[in-house]
Each structure stands twice: as C-alpha cells, then as structure tokens.
C-alpha cells in the first residue's frame, strides 16, 4: 500500500542488505506504547550511504488527538494499512539480523509492548541508543538544550522533519555517523554481519 503521509520519498519496499546498521523509529496512536501506527527505518551501509523506509500500521485502537497533531497520522490515514503482526513478520528477519539504533529507548519499548500484545517474539538484536552516543560526543549540550533530536537538529545542522518515523530514523542514523566523525572513532559493534540470524518462526 502507498503511504499517503510519505511526503519525504521514503522507500516503500525493503532494500537488499546486509547493512552496517539499521536505525529504527516508531510513532504511536496514543499514550499506549503498543499502539504503533508507523515504523520508519534507515539502512546504513559500510560507506555511510543511507536509504529510508516507512510503513503505516493500523494500531487497532483509537488515535489520541495529541498524537495525531504531532505526527499527522489519524484513523483515516491508516484505514487500509496492515496491522502490526503483518508488518512485523515481514520486517522480522531483516531487523533481527542487524544491529539496531534508536534515539532514546522508546522505540524498543514500543516494539516490546506490541509484541507482548500480539504474542509475537521480540527481536534479539543489539540496540544502540544514539542519545547516549550523542552525550559522549557533545557533552557541552547537557544543560544547553540537551540531546533530543530537536536540539541536535539545530546543533548539528541536520535536515529532517521531526515526528515522521522515516525522517526520525534517518536523523538517529546521522547522529551516530556525525558522532563518529567528531570523536574520530567508529562504534566497533556496529558492523555488517555476513552471517544472518535464523528466520522468523
């Protein structure tokens, strides 16, 4: 299905890997962590090139007005979208065979909650929190706006549209790459794995 909110040219089909890492971001329909209504992914190669992917999800619950105002997704937007189990099963093998990056820990918590809700296995991937990486790379930002994506956008001169899952995933990936440039060190645990994990069962 074509994502009507995809104003930013994200891929609508998954690219071929493997990748050095995948940055992941979710948007939710309400305060419930399991109410995922959009997943965005940014695929990063060994050379630092990036591709973004976005998919809408029917959260099977009501949208809170605050959330819809924040990300622009509503019940009408996801009317023809697949539910979480369908989307998750399609993504599982790819995500489970790569190191994942998230900005804060909300995205991992949301996926864990959604998996519990639908009785699905959670990913066993290693997660890197780009907030922690940013704190190490730019400690002066503590008390000067902090290390959230909005402040990092200004400090690092990033170009992205906040609260779109694909855009925020790309921003998290950019934070990792710029932090590596700043410190002069690559995160050694983020590396392309040629041996993929077992498929979803």
TrEMBL record:
Assigned GO CC terms: cytosol
A biological process from GO: DNA metabolic process
InterPro entries named among the record's database cross-references: Ribonucl_H, RNaseH-like_sf, RNaseH_sf
Limits of the Exonuclease domain: 20-185
Molecular function via GO: 3'-5' exonuclease activity; nucleic acid binding
Gene3D superfamilies with a match to the protein in the record: Ribonuclease H-like superfamily/Ribonuclease H
Protein name: DNA polymerase-3 subunit epsilon
Organism annotation: Shimia haliotis
């Amino acid at each position: 299905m074509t994502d009507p909110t995809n104003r930013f040219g994200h891929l609508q089909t998954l690219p071929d890997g493997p990748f050095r890492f995948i940055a992941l971001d979710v948007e939710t329909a309400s305060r419930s962590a399991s109410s995922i209504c959009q997943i965005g992914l940014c695929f990063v190669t060994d050379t630092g090139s990036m591709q973004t992917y976005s998919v809408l999800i029917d959260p099977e619950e009501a949208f809170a007005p605050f959330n819809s105002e924040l990300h622009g997704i509503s019940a009408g937007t996801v009317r023809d979208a697949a539910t979480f189990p369908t989307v998750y099963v399609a993504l599982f093998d790819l995500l489970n065979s790569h190191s994942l990056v998230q900005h804060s820990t909300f995205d991992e918590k949301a996926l864990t909650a959604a998996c519990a809700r639908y009785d699905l296995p959670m990913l066993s991937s290693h997660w890197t929190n780009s907030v922690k990486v940013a704190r190490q790379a730019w400690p002066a930002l503590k008390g000067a706006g902090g290390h959230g994506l909005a402040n990092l956008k200004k400090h690092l001169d990033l170009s992205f549209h906040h609260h779109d899952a694909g855009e925020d995933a790309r921003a998290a990936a950019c934070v990792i790459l710029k932090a590596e440039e700043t410190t002069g060190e690559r995160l050694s645990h983020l590396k392309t794995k040629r041996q993929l994990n077992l498929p979803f069962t």
